[in-house]
Structures are given as structure tokens and as C-alpha cells.
Amino acid sequence: MPALGADMATGKVVEWLVKSGDHVKRGDVVAVVETHKGAIDVECFLAGIIEPVAPLGAELPVGAVLAHVHGDRESETAAAMPPPPAPTARSAQTLAAMMTAPAVAAASRTEAPVTPPGAAARARVSPAARRRAAESRIDPDTLAGSGGDGAVILVDVEAAIAARAASPRTTRGGFDPVLMRQAIATAMSRSKREIPHYYLAETVPMRRALDWLRETNLERPVTERLLPAVLLIKAVALALREFPELNGWLENDAFRASPAAHVGVAISLRGGGLVAPALHDVTDKPLARLMRELADLVRRSRTGGLRSSELTAPSVTVTNLGDQGVQAVWGVIYPPQVALVGFGGIADRPWVDDGAIVPMPIVTATLAADHRASDGHRGALFLARLRDLLQHPDTL
Amino acid sequence: MSTTNAGLRESLAAAAAGGAGASAPLRLTYREACKQALRDALRADPRTFVMGEDVGKYGGCYGVTKGLLDEFGPERIVDTPLAENGFTGVGIGAAVAGLRPIVEIMTCNFSLLALDQIVNSATKLAHMSGGQFAVPLVIRMATGGGRQLAAQHSHSLEGWFAHIPGLKVLVPATVEDARFMLAAALADPNPVLIFEHIVLYNTEGDLDPGITAVDIERAKLRRPGRDVSLVTYGNSLPKCLAAADQLAADGIDAEVIDLRVLRPLDMATVVASLRRTRRVVIVDEGWKSGSISAEIAARLAEDSLYELDAPIRRVCSREVPVPYAAHLEEAALPRVDDIVAAARALQPRKA
Fold it and tell me: How far is A5 from chain B (nearest CA, A)?
């Protein structure tokens, strides 16, 4: 069972798309797994003959074997998903909860204890309670502890089991808004607790970009017209090439730069919550293709069919709240990523150009970055680079 | 050391008479239980004799052997010089030669003088002779503090001996165990140490007339409970039972386990208790560092971690030489209040 985000603890196979004896190759979708993010298509990362073993409908912990793949070299290997951003020590962090306004709000409401970076204390859960919780697929970190020292103890887990039994969830393949809210809260609390954020903002003139978009869209079929969002995402990816310290994952006090820009795009869901699946290898893809992929990603986020690799891959996140009309968004980094780039709405504002005040469409680009991985000076250079790239839209 | 044929016949006759006619009093002191055990052993087996400092004419430093010299004579109740290394060695030699010596070391504090005999000879002869020599030696020692005997007469060193392979270490805490552990120890072909707590000698307890023997292998549940296991031995047993009474008044149902034997440890009984209560306080009059309580805690952590619903706690003696002044001595040894506080701290907060 792959960890589809740092906060996923369990999942349920709802459909096998292969049968025993089928040949599979790397990247094939082999099963549909239901999580609090909805139904996710799980890809296989091995080649060989597959033998599914996970029963349909059973809630399995992350790490459980779903299938065996008999390959040429390795006789039997558990079909493991590569954990690009490997789930961190805390089993509870999850949620592909990428952030945007709802997550920001959720995090700011959380009274996170002040903890030095890298020294986040593990929640107190008694060994017996931890074992019982694991057996029952309950995340003990979400429970209130009634132990003498505040620890979560057996009675707390038993109470949670009883409560769950009393109100069985009916998710029916969709995501559970309550679970998703919990997961977002967990991930964002961890982010605010562990990550020393710094924030920078830059005002980016968008006249050239919008003019260019208008012109190029005139030449494109309606189905291939570009939105400003795709320009912004591409520009972020290109700018990151020179700032690897903003593009990767920080785990166990060690930063790992991503070899490519897999940009997580925060997508809000009807009914609340959000996911931030990845557009892979944004740097190398033309705008038209990115536009198609973005539209597909939004559709699948809302209707189901996200792929496991899309949830685990993001090396940076972009959130765009322009449609809501806000001026700027100060993001909460989705751990273990180290940066989040936010865009507010594009709006006409007075602009001083060569001594004259002129109307100018502008957008406020912000950077929330992890001070353990980068410093404000580099962050400022990144935003400046992003601004400059957007002045030359034809090169994007 | 040997018995004459006449002495042997006399002993057998006495044993027969005693066995048939005497009915054990229902209530007796721990000291009396120890004495009856010795008398039984001396009557039952002519190879048995008692040896130690002041065990004869004086009747034993703690009065356990009072009267035995008159009853069994100087060949079987042997006063020795103040020379633990020497007379413990004599005991080992007698055991190897076929007798069943019961050596009394006045207090375990003095057993340090006999450590070489106990650790290097008694426990190793069977091993180093390829099984040719057994050492069926029993050593009784007084242990513990609480009677203002100060720093050289008050310590609890049974945990040290529990470190040594080849020894059995018995810690009778009840009148019943004081009465019957000796026979089991004598039946064992290897050296057995019995630690009698000096505070227990004057305590009284009931003896079930139906019981005539005990094992020296199992820990014993002395009080059932659901909320916390108090694991203890020796004079800490009555303290734990008193603590359990206090806890019961607060609605905390404490279980009390009497280890009875420190080597080999009966962890199965301890773990079974832990499975019931999920919480454990180990109460040990030894110092905490490197103690038998540390060993028990380590084994629980190694083998039973997932049974625990709260951290393991220990109540031990303060890490100082036991003071002479009564209030300081009392403060240095495990107290009922300490046990109550430790057990209470492990309980869930009231909803």
C-alpha cells in the first residue's frame, strides 16, 4: 500500500485492474485504491508477472503488500511504490493536502507547540495503545490522551474504536470530507510546527504576458487555449532550475534536491478540502501540453482517478487564488517540500513607468520557503527571476 | 563433619515422632517458621547440619536457631569463628563430600567476605568438574534495613547474587515460604541462597495446615487487581499490600506479585500480571542502579513492550548507605507512600 502523501495511514483496494498472471510494466495502473483523497489509480513500479494478494475492500496500512511481481531478476518482490518524498517518521502526516486558503486557515487555527526545527517530539502514545491502534487502523496521534502524563493510552484507542463502530463512515468511493479535514490539519500543523517559514513577495507586471496570451490564443483552437495559470506554473518551474534549494524535500534534517520540477498544483475540491497533485517535469513540457495536463489533473482531482505517482511526486507547490480575487496568498509549505509559490489575482493597478503613472495588470507572487533549506537572499533572487521570466512569455 | 550411627538413629526417631505428633500452630512468626524449617530439616536428614556465627550457644543473632543446640547437639549446630570466607568454604567442602550443610551468614553485608567461596567455588565446581561434583549447599542470610542497624548491617544484596549463574536466590516474604522454602532448597543439588529480611522475623502470619511444601520456581500472586501490578519481594511485600489497601480506597485496584525467587526470575507470572493491568511498579529495597528491579524492567521492555500502557516505574532505596537515624533510615528505604504515589501517577486521568 503506497503512502499517497505524508499523512496517509491506510487505504483500501476497491478494484484490481490486473489479474493474476498478467504481465505488467513500470507505470501500468494495476489497482484503484480508495483513500481520504478519493479513489487513486495505483501504478506498478516493477516489470514482470503480477499476482495480486490484497483482498478487495480491506482497509490496509501503508506498507502492506498489495501484490507480488515475479520479475526476471528478482524472483519475488513486493510491488513497492517508490516513495519519492518518502513518508516521514510521523505516520499521521498526510494528505495530499496541499495548501491554499482553506489549509492556511486550518493551520493558523491550530495551536502548534513551539518546537525547534528537527526536534519535533513524537506524540506520547503508550506501546499498548500504539499496537491496538495499529490493529484497528486508527491514527493514535489524532486522539486526545488521558494517561497520567497526557499520553494516549489504551482506553483512548478503545473509545475511538467504539465511536467508529457507532458511526460507520459511508464514503462510497469518494473522499471523506471529515477525514480530509483531519489530514489537512495534521499536515499543516506539522508544517507550522516544524518548518521555519520565511515569506517574500514581489509585484509582477503582467501586461506582456497577457498580451502574448491573447495573441497566441487567437491562433489556437478553443480547446487548446492557454490560461494565465499555466504560464505562471511554467515560469516557476523554469526559475527553479537556478534555485535547487527551493525544489526538493527536507527529511530527517537532510535536504534532497529534486532532479526535476514536479509542480504540485493546489486544487480545491467541491465539498471542501483540496489536493495538490503533480504536473511532472514541467520544465520540459510545452505550454499546450501543460494546459491539457492541468485541465486533466483538475478534472481527475474532482472526479477521481488521480494516480499514485501524482500524489507522491511534487517537489514544490504552486497555489493560485487569483480566481477568488485576493491580492496575495501566504502559503503553508506542504512537508517535506521546502517551498510554496503563491499567486494572487491579476488586476489593474497604478504603475509608475519611466516617471509616469500608467494602468498595469499586476500579480503578487509570494514565496513561502523553509529557512532550513534556503535563505531569504536566494528566495528574493528566485522571485526576481520569476518576475523577469514572465516579462518574456514567448520564451516560456 | 559427620553423624554417628547413634546420632542418626536418634535423629530419625525424633523426626518420626515430630512428624506424627506435632501439629503446626496456625499462627506463628516468620522467625518461628524459619526455626521450624531448620528443625524439620535436621530431623529429616542426618546429613544436615547448621553452621555459622553465634548459631549455637547464643541461638542466632536474630534468634532463629535458639534451642536447636540443646535439641541436636554441637555436632549439628556448629558455632564458627568470625570468618565467613573460612566457614563458607567448609560448607562447600562438606556439601561436596556428601553432607547437606546449612550455612548461616549473619547478614548479607558480611557475605562479601565469602564472595569468592560462593561465586568462584560453590557455583562453579559442578561446571568445572564436568558434573563430577555437586554442591548441595544452602546459605541463609539476613538482609535488608529498617531496624536501625546502620550502614554495615542493613543492605539488600540479594540482587547482586541474582547476577550469578549457578545460584538460586530465594527471598521468602511470608511465613509459609519461610517455613517451607528451606526443604526445597536442600532438595536442590546446587547452591541455594535464602535471604531472610530482618524486619520480617517479628511479623506474624497464618500457616495453612494443608500446605506442607512450596516450590522455589514460581512468583506468586498475593493480591489480584486490574489497574496496576506491584512487583516486589521480601519486606517490600507487606509494604506493597499496605499500598494496595490505600490505593483501593481511591478506587485503584492494585495487583501484588511476590517474586519469591530472584534467580531464576519467573517472568511469566510477571508478564501475565502486566497483561491484566498494563501498568507496573517494581518495588525493590535494593539500590536502583544495577538492581534486580532494573533487570525486571529491562526484560519487560525487551519482551513485553507492547503490553505496557504506561512507563515502567520503580520504587527502590535511596542511593546512599542506609542511615542509622530512624527518620533518615525510613526515608532511605521504600515507603508505602512512595509506592502509592508511583502507582497513582500511572493511572489514567479521571474523565
Answer: 28
Q: What is the pLDDT of residue B18?
A: 45
- Dist. CA A293–CA A296, nearest whole Å: 5
Element holding A50 (H helix, E strand): strand A48-52
Cβ atoms of B192 and B171 within 8 Å: the answer is: no
Q: What grid cell was written down for A66?
A: 498489495
**Pairwise CA distance, residues B165 & B178, whole Å:** 24
**At residue A169, does pLDDT exceed 70?**
no
Cell of A114: 513551539
Q: Which of the residues of B are catalytic?
A: 84, 153
CA dist., res. A80 & res. A71, Å (int):
13
**Strand A197-205 versus strand A38-43 pairing type:** unpaired
**How many whole angstroms separate alpha carbon B348 and alpha carbon B351?**
8
CB B65 within 8 A of CB B50: yes
Bridge partners, A369 (sequence order): A198, A339
A167 pLDDT band, cuts 50/70/90, is: low
Find, among A333, A348, A343, A337, the residue nearest to A312 by Cα: A337
Q: Which residues of B touch A147 (CB under 8 A)?
A: 309-310, 348-349
B311 contact residues in A (CB cutoff 8 A):
149
In angstroms, how far is the first alpha carbon of chain A from the final one? 38
CA distance A16 to chain B (A): 35
- H helices then E strands: how many in chain B? 13, 14
- Asked whether the predicted pLDDT for residue B17 surpasses 80, the reply is no
Give the three-class secondary structure for A239.
Answer: helix
Report pTM: 0.55
Residue keyed to cell 490522551: A145
Which whole number is the average pLDDT over B81-95? 97
Indicate the DSSP class of residue B249: H
* Digit-coded pLDDT (tens) for A28-86: 888 888 777 677 888 887 888 888 888 877 788 888 888 888 875 443 344 444 444 44
